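Supplementary notes (optional reading)

For those who missed the lab, this is the record we used. Protein: Probable septum site-determining protein MinC. Length: 221 residues.
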Amino acid sequence: MALILVPEAPVSAWLSALDAQMERAAGYFAQKPVVVNFSALADDATDPTALLYALDMRGLAIISVEGLDRSRLSGTRFETLPDLRQKADNEEPLGRELALPEEVPRAEPVPAVTSLLIDRPVRSGQSIIFEHGDVTILGALSSGAEVIAGGSVHVYGPLRGRVIAGVKSGAKARIFCRKLGAELAAIDGVYSTADDWNKTYDNCAVQIWLSGGALKISALG
């Protein structure tokens, strides 16, 4: 399962947040391939090579670099890392294909909320991690896939995988989907599995929220 990391400015604060998460869940990051997407730093003066070395020093296995001018990696050991989004449309994927965001919206200097838009399905074995705000997925979240968001999660296709919301925003986060079939849903550390839900909500448009220390679910519309 590949992890997609989206560094943000200020990078020092982002690295500190990453360190805190790695300390809380060291096993989660162990031996997992990592894709680093620089789209959120497109207008930032951060040295991408220095940041990649910082991630490498943390034991992360970087397999791909996205969202930056490749010439900025020239002469470094990272210049040979592929940009998986440049694969031809008719090329057969080898192994599991990574679902990568086309564009990561730039945050304002003092943002109230940041967000990440994924405009394609998230396939089995893929993992999206975005700690700093909401995640919106325009396609499906397949069984065996997962999304971890600092805020709320919106899935406009079938929700079959695992959704973890509220990593930063806590209990105020919500999960929205058009077709419920999730393997697991969690908000602020409180989780439920498919066995816990009323089957009348299967394949229905629902919202999930946290109230009184338990997850609640209701139909939309």
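If you only remember one thing from this example: The chain has a mean pLDDT of 81.
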